[in-house]
Design goal:
The structure is a homodimer of 236-residue chains. Chain A starts with 22 loop residues before the first helix and ends with a helix. In chain A, a hairpin with a 4-residue loop joins strand 3 and strand 4. Chain A has 236 residues and is an alpha+beta fold. The first copy, chain A, is 37% helix and 25% strand. The longest helix of chain A has 25 residues. In chain A, helix 3 crosses helix 4 and helix 6 packs across helix 7. At the A-B interface, strand 4 and helix 4 of A face strand 4 and helix 4 of B. The structure holds a DNA duplex (30 and 30 nucleotides).
Chain lengths: 236, 236
Amino acid sequence: MRKNKAYCTDENWSGRTDCKHCAIRSTVLFSVLSEAELEDALREIDNQWVEAGSELFFQDTKGQYVYTVRSGCVKMVHEIGDGSCYRIVRLHYRGDTFGLEALLGEPYRHSAIVLQKADICRIPVSTVQTLRTRNLQLYKQLILRWQATLDEAEHFLVDLNTGHAESRLARLLLKLDAHNERHLIPDLLREDIAAIIGVTTETASRLMADFRRRKLVCDETNRQMRCDPGALKSLI
Amino acid sequence: MRKNKAYCTDENWSGRTDCKHCAIRSTVLFSVLSEAELEDALREIDNQWVEAGSELFFQDTKGQYVYTVRSGCVKMVHEIGDGSCYRIVRLHYRGDTFGLEALLGEPYRHSAIVLQKADICRIPVSTVQTLRTRNLQLYKQLILRWQATLDEAEHFLVDLNTGHAESRLARLLLKLDAHNERHLIPDLLREDIAAIIGVTTETASRLMADFRRRKLVCDETNRQMRCDPGALKSLI
DNA sequence: CGCTGGTTTGACATATGTCAACAGCCGTGG
DNA sequence: CCACGGCTGTTGACATATGTCAAACCAGCG
């Protein structure tokens, strides 16, 4: 079934409110393209709900798409050596863009795997190129996305890989909490927690079990949790 | 003493060969500015040798300059909490650009401190803005720099903060070696090594002393070292 | 010469890793 | 329906890498 309008410009599409953070959206306003040209360029943008665990792209492969998160959460996974071991180098949340390397014709640096059921826009590199040749504003937007990605990567190093494992886990939970307005944070796999804060799966499990006993976190439905930000901050 | 020509365009300036990696340099070729305009824009670029330990800018301050390394090495230092503790989140070597946040009008994320006597170009934000309004090529160059910065930050996380301290130190030495064509690497302060690989100063010292005893590294003049890449690789 | 700041080293504490067992959950297939 | 296997999480016992604290050492330098 072919849509007759692009998602981004279709007023009848129910999801439009989540577009406000999108790089494309905020540059379309400044576009010098005609309405028809715009429709055409944007029609190739695909929007979809993706289940947790799905892989959007793989480390070291080339791809023709850049992605934005409309809701949910995506992990950027870097495999090390023979693949027996991996680190999560960033998370991307609502409003974020990832896979920017594709715009440079470079292979993806990491695998992108959905952490929490996510609403994802998949934007062809060609679409971005069409828009940006006509529109300086898009370059600025892109640069802002690159900087945001860099900020997130550096936060991972500074906040989640420094200090004792307990503080690191506390900071991780606070970070997840800050990105969820409804204060429901995903109950991550212990293996993922381990790959984020740089410990073994067992240590991650012990810490989480301990946090639960100390009532720093409590379970909610649907593999989600709620945390006590005040208490967590005191652990940092 | 005022120069009568900009460094970048002065054929008599002895340092010109190191310009080949510069973002400005590689876009000047595509510039639509007149030669006079170009001279004017580039004249504000300052070039200087900077001693180890000098601070080019400070974390959380705003500045009007972006920098490039013509030779030597600069560390990006992030202070944590009250400043009693810090991490080094990236290193920048010959050809790199840093302080890009300034182009967005944002405060510098980290302090930039010279690690090894360095030849630095200091480029005013206004110069970049003058050039880029007339020149799409510069945007592409800037984006490449942002990606390079991101790559370096992620390598720090994946290579230098994963695995045992011994492997991390080995990877650090190999990285330093890879950035020095003459295979002379700086003999870093133990405190800096510690802030890079995420251990205490004592552990960094013990490891380095051990590496020296095992002949994995040996001292050279001028606080420099030589390392045995083959042996180091076997430790990874 | 005696500071000073960086380095090395020792003795000991402890956080985290390792290996292994077991428990709970869930989907599958008999 | 139950039995089973596979996956994830929890926990224990123990090993070990790294942190902590303190002392000694060393080179450069006023």
